[in-house]
Design a protein that fits this description.
By secondary structure, this protein is mostly helical. 58% of the residues lie in helices and 4% in strands. Helix 6 runs antiparallel to helix 7.
């Protein structure tokens, strides 16, 4: 998940580590706290794999005004996605297996980069996530019906709260799926081949043609077996 999120952010623009960590917090939505102790080892591995490159700052250049504490004279190292990194990101963004939606945290990251995801892939991921959540809902309902008489009202309220949360997610996913299908239908309709254009009307006869026709009269066809005479 961390590699996918880093590649997705660097696909949008190069960033230094401080900005990258801040953007990761927005993408993950508080699902996971990313420390420098986990971020920089990941960046080091990705650089060794050729997925990203670094732009070392000039050691003699002045530090920017917004440099974080303890930056030192080295300034900020800027990370940029490479061609191999873009290829890796597109491979990851096209995956539609259970790993894309069974885990809630990874699904949230995938959703954050839906703008880079093909429409049919988005739809399969959303449908897979909805199936997963619907199974969770059925499990909660079954558990609630079995344990209703064994727990106190506070435990039951906690279970009801969990069931309501899952119900809301199912409705939310259904709305996203309906929206994706409408957009797909609109795109398909827009790509339909237009109907055949009507045949152009025959040009109106000129005044000379009308005069010649009136003076000659109706043409007579040749007799049977006779050649046509001009």
């Amino acid at each position: 998940m961390l590699e996918f999120a880093i590649l997705g952010l660097l696909h949008q623009a190069p960033m230094h580590g401080y900005e990258l960590r801040k953007q990761l917090a927005h993408v993950l939505g508080g699902l996971r706290s990313i420390s420098y102790g986990s971020l920089y080892p990941a960046l080091k591995r990705m650089r060794a794999a050729g997925l990203i490159s670094t732009d070392e700052p000039d050691p003699h250049a002045l530090l920017p005004a917004d440099a974080p504490p303890l930056t030192g004279r080295r300034g900020k190292v800027v990370y940029t996605i490479t061609a191999e990194g873009k290829e890796r990101f597109h491979d990851l963004v096209s995956q539609t297996g259970p790993e894309a939606y069974d885990d809630g945290g990874l699904f949230g990251v995938r959703l954050a980069f839906f703008g880079h995801t093909a429409s049919d892939v988005r739809l399969r991921i959303l449908e897979g996530r909805r199936r997963t959540v619907e199974r969770q809902r059925e499990g909660l309902r079954s558990s609630l019906s079995r344990t209703r008489e064994r727990f106190d009202r506070y435990t039951l309220e906690l279970q009801r709260h969990g069931l309501e949360s899952v119900d809301r997610e199912v409705r939310w996913l259904s709305e996203l799926i309906d929206s994706e299908r409408r957009e797909a239908s609109g795109s398909t309709a827009g790509r339909e081949e237009p109907g055949a254009a009507p045949a152009p009307a025959a040009p109106a006869p000129s005044s000379a043609d009308r005069t010649r026709s009136a003076s000659v009269g109706p043409a007579e066809g040749p007799g049977e077996g006779e050649p046509w005479a001009p």
